[in-house]
Amino acid sequence: MSNLSEEVKQLIIDTLDLEDIEPADIDYEDALFVDGLGLDSIDALELGVAIKKAFDVKIDNNSDDSKKHFYSVKTLCEFIEQSAAK
Amino acid sequence: MEFTIKQCVAWSGDLTTAQDWQAYSQGDKKLSDSNELPSLKQIPAMQRRRLSPFAKLALHCALTAADECLTTVPSVFASRHGDLVKTSKLISDVAAQEMLSPTQFGLSVHNAVGGLFSIYTGNKAPLTAVSAGEDTFFTALLDALAKLKANNYSQILLVYTETLVPQMYQQYIAQDEVSIACALLLEPANLEEKSEQDADVFSLQMQQNNSQQTIENSQMQVLDFLKFYYNNSKAVSIKSKRHLWQLNKSANAS
Q: So what's the ipTM on this one?
């Protein structure tokens, strides 16, 4: 697993005050929201701001693309890598 | 108007039970600097993680005092400064041109804790948020009693909360402030069937204070109230810069 995914997991934990959760508890491909880790819409906004700050990427708040990017740690990492390559 | 107090729950540092507050009112226990907070284990961890010390104090007292009527009771939430720790962090971020945290922003408004209470309990009854300077506690009590009477409610919940203001605002604080929450479950005194026959009947009066007092009282009104509630005196009057508050207590004769 890449360093980026570890970084993203730690960012999720720190940003969203997930006190009792370790990076290893977050599955790379599982859903972050609702069924998976159980994050909600406020978390989505919060995480969006944190990812913008940490990786200097642009996120379109309401697009379907953003929903896909925020599905899992894996999709987030791919999105960050794509944006950096542009 | 006359009313009874069905439940009184207060938390400040290590004063957390009715016995503690009784001892406080008799001078046997003092307020402390302890930052002890309620654990609120009943709230799921995913919801609890967003609760500030302010929200924890308020929710603990609210949920305990209104335990019998959580989903139906109307409420008045009161605080002089609100969750100022949150608000001032946001203002600092604006000044530094940082992006604001959506979570902090959403939870910084004055009725945020009332909203959290409503979401957690599923209670959709009317709810107000009051702030009225040094008179916040008694104004909120007056507001609650007015709503109780005007709407013929059988009960109303009053939740007063204060936490220490951040360092940068301390110079503007004239009172000796402590972090505290106090929740009261209030009922009209004239309910036909009195379940607790020995419940004290209270009444509250407010007048303008024309004495041109220019200095705030050093003691917070919530502490005036708690002392009075737990001791044996029959009446207390509290002067503020604007008002003269009088609380009376009499044993229920019926």
A: 0.79
